[in-house]
Amino acid sequence: MKNTPSVALVLHAHLPFVRHPEHPSFLEERWLFEAISDTYLPLLRVFDRLEADKIPFRLAMSFSPTLCEMLADSLLQDRYVEHLDRLIELGAREAERTAGDPKTNPLARFYYDRAVEDRVLFVERYEKDLLKAYDFYHKKGRLELMTTAATHAFLPFLASNSEALQAQIELALSTHRSYFGKNPSGFWLPELGWFPGADSLLRSYNFSYTIVDTHGLIFAEPCPENGTFAPVKTPEGLAVFARDLFASREIWDSKTGFPSDPIYRDYYRDIGFDLPAEDIDCFLEPTGVRSATGFKYWAVTGGASDKNVYDPAAAARRIEEHAAAFLDARAERGRAASAAVGAAGCAVCAYDAELFGHWWFEGPAFVEKLFRLASLRDDVVLVSPSDIIDADPPTQTATPQFSTWGANGYAETWLDSSNDWIYRHMLRSIVRMSELAERFPDDGGLKERALNQAARELLLAQASDWAFILKSGTSPEYARKRVEEHIKNFTTVYESLGGNYISTEWLTTLEKRHKIFPQMNYRVFRRKR
Question: What is the pTM of this model?
Fold first, then answer.
């Protein structure tokens, strides 16, 4: 198998913690609902079909602790069912409205049927527990599970504070164990943010491997002899894979990637913005704010006013072409690697999970077709990162360079004029949290509850998502409010403990609102001796 290239598909599933029980509905909670309908349920359907047809498949997925907590939350589970009920109602109305249009009516009926099926799958088959459904395939050996930092903090910016890193990793591990029963061997660096000392940190928690962006390994010291075709091991013994640059461009590039094909479904145009308000009133926010419904009738085609109606049959044919081309490219690069270094090596194809289904509607079908076509070929094999290490442990020792998968490859996405204000408050609060952990090492009762909630608020403020959203401008008001709210809540606890008084009513309300990490132990912020 040395000259058969190994391809590891790695999908990173993450969303920031968004839960607002203080409101009857909340627009940003739809981030989770859309991800479930567009990505997490479709991927499970893919796994089910492959398993039923006895098609071998093997891939890796990382589930962030915040996503795990939301998927397991009964309030959000019930609200997702309500979301599906609104989709079903909208679908029935759309099927009636488009009855005279032979092009859009089949699509309206398709979306209606999918919403009905989603409800049956989610409520009856999976009993609202999607983590258990994914763990089923993990236990069958089809799916390798990874974790990431507790609240997906951008770790390079916490590197100067070992207690903050310690809290992010230890809480991630305890959350993963609570849902999947064992520690993972792989760690997904949030935003693929590698920094000096990352290997020592991850090895101290017994992680076996991680992934960096291509240039992080290309510029390693010393230069990797096999380029990105093989992992290296760091001086601490951590295996480090590089993301395959060409595989990333084939799917991720907004202009030349597969999802930009004019035959595929257009992500942006949605009836939630096209139709009169009275036609979609069952899906409007109480304030009348419009949002995407998922009912999208148009192909990518050309400009906003020059689009063809989406043709699922044509898209299915193109998916087969693109899946075959993707495997051909991996096999060809394997042959090139064999000629250059004497072994075909591996290709780690790492992506955001939400790209498959949410952003690229045909993405789950692409994943399914990859495995079906690969099962008929002998020039490429689909595996997990651990399989690669087990079959051929890395022999060269090298240290990657600081890198991310953000714009231009470094840290400018998470540190510029739009979001730099976050860090002075966050870093000061980290120091204060460590101070609290030292001052109150053995407290219980109300004081311990307050300390644990202070730690939760601080961790939630550290999510890399808020800086990213502020930079991208997608929901900047919400991101700013979240950071300010978490820092304010932390500061309230800090000052209240300084005055030896805290409001039980206020704390109880906050615990119910930000209900996350029940195993939280504030002592994780104690300074190392």
Answer: 0.96
Express each pLDDT in 164-216 by its tens digit: 999 999 999 999 999 999 999 999 999 999 999 999 999 999 999 999 999 99
503: confidence class by pLDDT, cuts 50, 70, 90: very high
- In 3D, which of 157, 177, 144 has the Cα closest to residue 68? 177
Mean pLDDT value across the chain: 95
- Give the count of beta carbons closer than 10 Å to the beta carbon of residue 339: 9
Statement: residue 1 has pLDDT above 60:
no
Task: Please check the confidence at residue 2 and state whether its pLDDT lies above 70.
Answer: no
Correct CATH for 415-525 of 1.10.3720.10, 3.30.1780.10, 1.20.1430.10, 1.10.1040.10: 1.20.1430.10
Q: Using DSSP bridges, classify how beta strands 209-212 and 186-188 pair: parallel, antiparallel or unpaired.
A: parallel
CATH number 3.90.1150.10 is the correct assignment for the domain at 6-72+129-265+310-408? no
Residue 76, both tokens = 């959000």
